[in-house]
Design a protein that fits this description.
The protein has two helices and 13 strands; from the N terminus they run E-E-E-E-E-E-E-E-E-E-H-E-E-E-H. It is α/β, with parallel strands linked by helices and about 180 residues long. The strands form two sheets. It has a seven-stranded mixed beta sheet with strand order 2-4-6-8-11-12-13. It has a six-stranded mixed beta sheet with strand order 1-3-5-7-9-10, with no helix packed on it. The protein is elongated. Pfam families: CAP_C (PF08603). This is Adenylate cyclase-associated CAP C-terminal domain-containing protein.
Length: about 180
């Protein structure tokens, strides 16, 4: 099946599809595409999509016509995932993942675990002109974040807390001196 999206839409969800070719030429209001339990899906993106979520899939090919259209792709338990980003008609960035991002052993453990839905998720983004793949972890309130981002956030939060502590100490000292 082949579909061409030539007008704005809210969101694109692809579920349990096989042998699908999708071309997106216009705006997606939420800037999100979700692909779930699908096989042999080829998506060509000629407009900006902030996030593509790919879960439990096989043979997924994403082609962005412009680096400015790409922000991130998140996937779990997906094999044969390919991402190509073109610039001026030339392939500029490429990512290929041939294997499932969680092993059969991990999947079996998850099936026996009450927390089945907590499968390993990866995110790929363009950072400093390179495609960077990182594992997502769940921070406070289950917010998805990479370990690198979580570490950066904690460092910044600790520095801000220290500045606040020093400011309060100085304020208390000034108040004590003013009352004496």
């Amino acid at each position: 099946m082949e579909y061409i999206i030539d007008s704005a839409c809210t969101k694109i969800m692809i579920e349990e599809c096989k042998n699908l070719k999708l071309t997106v030429n216009d705006k997606i209001l939420t800037s999100i595409i979700e692909v779930w339990k699908s096989d042999n899906v080829n998506i060509s993106l000629n407009s900006q999509v902030q996030t593509i979520q790919i879960d439990h899939c096989k043979n997924i090919n994403l082609n962005y016509s412009n680096p400015n259209h790409f922000y991130s792709a998140v996937w779990t338990t997906t094999s044969q995932f390919s991402l190509k980003i073109f610039e001026d008609g030339q392939e500029k960035y490429t990512f290929n993942n041939e294997k499932d991002n969680s092993s059969e052993e991990e999947n079996e453990e998850k099936e026996n675990d009450s927390l089945k839905d907590e499968l390993k998720q990866n995110i790929i983004r363009l950072i400093d002109n390179q495609l960077v793949t990182e594992e997502l972890v769940r921070a406070e309130n289950w917010f998805p974040i990479t370990r690198r981002e979580w570490g950066e956030w904690k460092t910044k939060a600790n520095a801000n807390a220290e500045k606040l502590r020093q400011s309060k100490e100085a304020e208390i000292k000034n108040n004590d001196e003013a009352t004496n």
